[in-house]
Amino acid sequence: MTPAIRSELSPGGKLRVGVNLGNFLLVTKDPASGELRGVVPDLAQELAQRLGATVELIGYPGAGQVADAAGAGAWDVGFIGAEPQRAAVIEFTVAYVEIPATYLVPPGSPIRSLEEVDRPGIRVATAARSAYDLYLSRNLKHATLVRAEGIPASYELFVAEKLDALSGLLPRLTSDVNRMPGARILEGRFTAIQQAIGTPKARTAGAAYLREFVADIKASGLVAGLIAKHGVKGISVAP
């Protein structure tokens, strides 16, 4: 631990952590107290303890807003999916967990496989600027993405507009499929979201320390233990 690491990650003795409140798998808000709980808040506390700092959790409605705030210096460490578009302003670690992403199709859909989604005329609902939206924006060649602000809104859009598919994180789609009798989740995944830790560009000492931190919390079993502690289903420690 060096002064440069502390000054880059916890200036003034406070670690400001950007948190994606849209990722219900890794963070939830207690309805009574407003306290943030889950894998991400626990990891933030662990990091702050190692830095000898207090922690301030700064919540954003989605990953896109967390990434936007990086350029403004609003946080020192952010917990979001690592994507090439975000890497222009954020220095990422390797992933600490990964979350599979796939599609939900409505009752009676002729779509049977992931490959059949990317065809002319197919409309896919997605949560704007989520990691999987960014991935699909790069990789879909024929289908059209229809965006909504946030994961719950993407489901409502899918239903209201009678779209052909809903893209999303598998654990969320496993819940959504029960809301639509006859709907199906397509087998397999089009990507696995790499949930990582980042710090704004140019904080080289801090970025190097975060890479060591992630390697340690994976190897020590801390990440796996927190997944079990919070009963999170459908995610795994990243290889």
Overview of this structure, please?
There is one protein chain. This protein is an alpha/beta fold and 239 residues long. The chain has two domains: 3-97 and 193-237, D-Maltodextrin-Binding Protein, domain 2 (3-Layer(aba) Sandwich); 99-191, D-Maltodextrin-Binding Protein, domain 2, CATH 3.40.190. Helices cover 33% and strands 27% of the residues. The protein has eight helices and 13 strands. Strands 1, 4, 5, 6, 7, 8, 9, 10, 11, 12 and 13 form an eleven-stranded mixed beta sheet that branches. The longest helix is centred in the last third of the chain and has 16 residues, at 204-219. It is elongated.
Which descriptors would you attach to this protein?
2 domains; D-Maltodextrin-Binding Protein, domain 2; two-stranded antiparallel ribbon; 8 helices; alpha/beta
